[in-house]
Hints:
The chain is α/β, with parallel strands linked by helices and 205 residues long. It is 26% helix and 20% strand. It has helices at 18-21, 35-40, 44-51, 68-75, 87-99, 113-116, 150-160, and strands at residues 58-61, 79-84, 106-110, 123-126, 163-168, 185-191, 194-203.
Amino acid sequence: MHTEHTPTDPCPLGDRYQRYWDKLSLPEKQMQIDVEGLYSMDLQSVATALAARIKADQVIDAFCGIGGAAIAFARAGKDVLAIEIDPQRLEMARHNARMFGVDRKVNFQLGDALDILQKSSAALYLDPPWGGPSYGRLDRFSLSHFSPNGEVLIRKGLTVSLEIYLKLPKNFAFDELDGICRPIEVIENEVNGRLEYYTAVFKGG
């Protein structure tokens, strides 16, 4: 007789999101999280490792969501400008930063990143929406699948920062970068020993 597995720590947002919930650490499970934040948030372990690679003392998180990456960067000692277009999600990020004790290291700003970004000495972290979990069904994830368009973001990033980090799905079509700017490095970001996504590093200026 088949018996369904019942998780000992069920996801509060529903069974269909259990696999995302299981990746979170105990402190991350105490954060304010919505569905989009659950499947898209950078885990503290991964974002902290990325922060160690960032040379600049300041980081702009252009799509901060509920604050995962911004919090990790701040915990690593960076001063962070966190931009988010959704006011409710920005308030969640603010709350989560207070929970981790780094709210004084993060300047939260409501608005559209493309309108706000200006040339500065800060590193730029780009994690634009991928269109939800259905992105994984695509054979090739293109720059046009990002929202806003990935090519527009990269070209904007290259004009405002010397150090740009772009989060990319596993099915990303890397050949699309050939006509724009080739990354100086592609980082393989792993969770529990499995590739979760890539981070492409660009040198701007």
